[in-house]
Structure formats: structure tokens, C-alpha cells
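hi! just following up on the protien thing from before. the input was this:
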Amino acid sequence: MTGDRNNAESLDRCAVVVPALNPSDKLTSFICELSELGFKNIIVINDGSDFKFSHVFRDLEQSGHCIVLTHDRNMGKGAALKTAFEYFLRNFGGKDMCGVITADADGQHLPDDVLSVANALCSSTNSIIMGSRNFRQDNVPQRSRLGNTFISKAFRWLYGVSLSDTQTGLRGIPLPLIEKAESIYGSRYEYEINVLILAKKQGIKFVEVPISTIYFDNNESSHYHPFSDSMRILWVLFAGLLRYFYASIISSIVDVGLFIVLNYWVFALLSTEVRLFWATAIARVASSAVNFVLNKKTFAGTQPHPRTQLIRYYILWIIQLLAAYLMVYGLSFIIPSDAVSKLVTDNLLALFSYQIQLRWVYYAEPAE
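and the predicted 3d structure came back as:
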């Protein structure tokens, strides 16, 4: 009886959102099965489907099992999700709701798996639930296996979150994240990655729930465009790393510019040794302060106390300074040019520093 009561609470406090583009009749049976399970708040988005598929949406409307929202033209999965989230907030946001379950319209998700995600969402106070597939099964298309593996590893390296399935369409999105969803960039598949990035920055926990791994006809029914959609996702993924290098470039400009001003004008009358020391020291401290502030925005999220961040940052800064000297000195025996040695060293240390700042300097455990 307790399990039934928990299921009933989850069904009442969640909405299921299903974006659809040129769906088969499988969508009608899927929505009917969700309704039979007890889901009362189901939103289907017709994202500009061709006219010959209109009977599917007409049948859904007549069934009374769901609300059908329509885009006059295809706007992309991200845009469809935004439309549904806006409707959810306008009609259900004021109630005691856990959030939204997103599911795909192509038959890849079982109603029982949707229920499992709903239960997990309503039992977690501040978590995004990921319905994770097993990509080691024989029925998984090679392009899906390789693409998901690469993006999952990139997401872990760039954002410090280990997920086995970043591309899953079956997710439980908590209400605090839904309230920010309209402002999230993206209108197609890159939108879903941006939701994960925002969740990380908001300190929302990630919970993975195993689900069935279903593919039909080598995933030919998917509307995912391997090249264009992959490029959008990769651009979104690596945007944080680009901001990090942008911060490094700005800091270098401050360092060099301030050094020139101090060395050639402010301390011009001092001896060479004193002039170079103070010009270098002040410029380096000032540029590191600029870098600290810019990186604080880059690694925005659940962060420790500012004083803790500052202490950690300058511990890392000192270690990097010593490491840079030792690496340049060591490479001088292999590479004739000190300038090339410094370039190699700075780039390697920048990648190392990114990981340390992500996982230690600006990191604190998300609140329960």
C-alpha cells in the first residue's frame, strides 16, 4: 500500500512532457498507457509536424488523456520543451508540484520507466533525474554508442559531473530548474545539454535511474541530425572552456600592460633590479586578481565561501608558478627555444588548472 501511495503522489505532482515531430501511432498508445498508469498532467507538443500526421494529434486531443500544444512550424526540440514548460508553469506551477518528466515520442521509453523517474523526482528535494540507458547492449547503434560516450566524457571533464547517459530524453526536471528553463539558450538538441549545465551551476544534484534501452530500425526514426546537431552540442559543451581561456587572455593583457606602465613610467627612476621586481610583482598580482574574478563567473555554481576560494586560488597560483619554472627549465634540455618551452608549459598548465579550479577552488558540495 505504501508503494501505491507514493506512486499516486508522484503522478499527481508531476507533468509528463512529450515533444513530437511526425510521430507514428505508437505515440497514441504511449500516451494512453501513461494515462492508464495514473498520470493526469500530460502535455504533448506538435512541433510543426507534416499534415499527414495530423490524425495522430487529433486522436490524442479526442482521447482526453493529454493537452496538445501546436507549433505552426518546426522550431526544434528545445523550443518545444520551452513551450511545454511555459504552459506547465502557467497552469500547474502554483501547485505543490515536483517538476516535469520529459519523454521522447518515438517509442524508446516505457511507461514504467517514466513512472520510475517520476518517483525518483518526487523523492529527491533538489535533483535532476536522468533515465540512463545501457549502451553496452547489442541493439545499440554504433553512432549512438560512440556519440553518447564522447559527450558523456566531455561533460565529465568540462563540468565535473559523471553521467553514463547525457543524451537521454527521459529526465525528471525539478521545479526550481523549470522556472529558469525559458531563459536557457537553445532551440534544438543543444538545449538539453544547456539544461544540464545550468543544473550543475545551480548546485542541483544529478541522480541516474536505469531504464530500458530500446532502439527501432537502427534509430532511423530519430530527428537528430548527426553533423549539425552534434556541432551545436559541442559548441555548448566547450563554451565554458573557451570562457576560461578568454579569462586567461584578458589576464595576460592586464599583466603585460601594467608591467609596461610600471616599468617604463611609474618606476622609471629606480634601479633596474628594483624596477623589474616591483613591476613584475604588482602586475602579476593584479592580473591574478582579474583572473580570479573572471573565473569565479566561469565556474559559477555551488561555491565555497569567498575567502576559501581566494586561499585555494592562490595556493594553486603558487604551485603553478613553481611548476612553470621547473617545466620550462626541464624542457630547455629538449626544446632549444625557451619561448616554445614556455608556450607548451603554459598551455599544459592551463588545462591542469582548469580541472583544479573546477573540482576544488570554486567547488562545494551541493546542499541536500
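The chain has two domains: 2-224, 240-361.
DSSP finds twelve helices and seven strands in the chain.
cheers
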